[in-house]
Amino acid sequence: MAAPKTAIVTGATRGIGRATAIALARRGYDLVVTGRTIREGGAAALPEAAVMPEVATAPGSLESTVAAIEAEGRRAVPVVLDLLDRARLVPAAEEAISALGRVDVLLNNAIYVGPGSTQTFLDTTPDEVANRMFGNLTAQLLFTQPVLRHMVERGAGTIAGTTSAAGYAPPERRAGDGGWALVYGVSKAGFTRMASQLAVEHPNLRFLSLNPGYVTTERVHAAGEKLAFVATRGAPVEAVGEAMARILDAPRDTFVNGSTVEVQELAREWGLLPG
Predict the structure, then answer these.
(1) Contact at 8 Å (CB) between 69 and 76?
(2) pLDDT tens digits, one per residue of 140-198
(3) CB 211 within 8 A of CB 164
(4) Helix axes 139-154, 86-100, angle to 10 degrees
(5) Residues contacting 14, CB < 8 A, separation 6+
(6) What letter does residue 4 receive in the DSSP assignment?
(7) pTM greater than 0.70 (yes/no)
(8) Under CATH, which number does the domain 5-269 receive?
């Protein structure tokens, strides 16, 4: 019997990470999933929950994601990881590799969640600047290194990142008025660069940036009017997760190595979203 396909999905307690992990399980993957919320209700204790009530009320946890993956008949290993905990990043990646034995796919999906996401630059505190840049870029670089080294030794593997148009498209609105925060866009610009650079350094592996577009996640629903501009434009998270899984599971030459893939365009082609 052939060994199962394997994947690491970061930030999989809820939202795009959770939906993609479950969709990968349906496609035969065993998974390591990372996140900060171990069990339902635990998000209320996260530091940002005091100023972002939607964090506390949105459902999702490592336990529920693991249960959903196991319901698909696949194995799931939870690894607790806070992107701002620098000392945990490399050990967590090594734990994930050890748990799976072999890593076929890494999806860097987790991002820093903090109060500055709808603030203009002058309203953003120095701590928020530092946290968002570290949590959206430096943390992913540090977590990726052990996994990349493992894939180079194997001679195969896919590393993808959940990016955003904020990293490469000109903004049309101010932060807080339907636009993104400057620091978020800057962090995603650097993050998107990972795929194209690594594709040159390791052309025998596959690297992709995946832009899911606006998505109606659990946190978007919980935020109400605050994130209404996303809810009114967003695609259902389950459809986006299924499209992400199809992209990650596609044959190597389906997409240009190092490129950015517009996920919702493919989801419409595949009939997962209205045309």
Answers:
(1) yes
(2) 999 999 999 999 999 999 999 999 998 998 888 887 777 788 999 999 999 999 999 99
(3) yes
(4) 30
(5) 37, 58, 59, 60, 61, 65, 217, 218, 219
(6) P
(7) yes
(8) 3.40.50.720
